[in-house]
Write a structure and sequence with these properties.
34% of the residues lie in helices and 25% in strands. The chain is of the alpha/beta class. Bound molecules: flavin-adenine dinucleotide. Residues 11-17, 34-37, 47-48, 127-129, 141-143, 147, 165, 167, 206, 219, 252, 272-274, 280, 283-287, 289 line the site of flavin-adenine dinucleotide.
Length: 373
Amino acid sequence: MELSGLSVAVIGGGIGGMAAAAALAQRGAQVRLYEQAPELSEVGAGLQISANGQVVLRALQAVGQDIPTQATLSPGTHMRAGRSGRKVAFVPPPSSGATWYMHRADLLTLLIKSAERAGVEITLGRPVTPGTVRADLIVAADGGQSTWRSVVDGPVAPAFTGQVAWRALVPCDPPVAADQPATLAMGSRAHVVSYPLRSGRSMNIVAVEERSGWTQEGWRQSGDPADFRARFADFGGATGALIARAEAVHLWALHLRPVARRWADGRVALLGDAAHPTVPFMAQGACLALEDAWVLSSALAHAGGVEAGLVAYQHARRARAEAVVALARGNAWRFHLTPPWSWGARAVLAFGAGALARRLDWVYGYDATKVFT
Ligand SMILES: Cc1cc2nc3c(=O)[nH]c(=O)nc-3n(C[C@H](O)[C@H](O)[C@H](O)COP(=O)(O)OP(=O)(O)OC[C@H]3O[C@@H](n4cnc5c(N)ncnc54)[C@H](O)[C@@H]3O)c2cc1C
């Protein structure tokens, strides 16, 4: 289907919405994007963008063939024991290519430029609810707490996972080595991931603990740095030293809804977290949203009409999203084992980290640009 002349309203200016707007506009659609926030601010922190996300960024011409200056190449991940900081295993980069560390705001800026070059009209400060916008196609990329999802797939209540993620950016002056591996420190019922951002001028921390009885959803709440340090006081080594330096922290109570059964209804399509919210233990939420964006635009281009294109989009995407989300959920308990289970798991990791990494090739080696050719 020729997309020129197709009017599209994209709801949400996050990674998924901006990428979808760019992809559709590049194929000729007239795209308007509505973002409820009055500005596309610095909110956010580090993201790991693996090869399956990078391939879409290149196809969107948001980045060139080389590594963008806004990204740092990850040489792998050190897995460490939380308390002692002792190295347990080294996970090499995936065979499909090394992951990039990026600040979310830098990635969003690249996507905005790509969308604007393709002619997307961006309207800020405009929340759009179902029934208030008209277009040939509506792409609902309004995040994990999507209001559009219930229109497409019926209402579903979020379930608290029992896990809370703390996020912090620790400024580094002088800068730390930008080419150092990420660290995954595994504690008892807690784990901490850290890696450098912006040429080593800061370190990104995501620290996850188990808790009961949390109700508030969303990932932008401010937290108390003293509380953060107290809760992760038993982490030692470089991770412990980093936690001690955190001065501004945010909290994110991890809630999950199942992957939507229906991703499209008539001319409305769900995309990104709105269709498949995930926990961050595979670092794939943004990458899946990028894949969705490319596959949606190419499914429409190959179909005879909008509704047929949306059927093809769901068919191409749902099983993969569900598999990646399930893998991420499984990692929560793998990273949080208590003795004696943790001893066995760490022994397995010590001898088999490379093999484990190879078993994830289906995640990182996926090429969304080849799904409809
Ligand atoms: C701590 C943390 C670490 C993460 N790490 C990684 C990682 O390393 N790698 C990775 O790939 N992913 C990671 N993720 C996941 C990733 O950030 C998300 O999966 C991804 O950003 C989802 O993008 P999205 O566009 O679907 O939703 P969002 O980014 O949530 O964007 C939705 C947008 O829609 C807007 N909106 C909502 N409702 C409306 C409305 N009614 N009208 C208009 N606008 C509306 C919102 O304001 C928002 O801007 C991480 C997430 C967190 C919280």
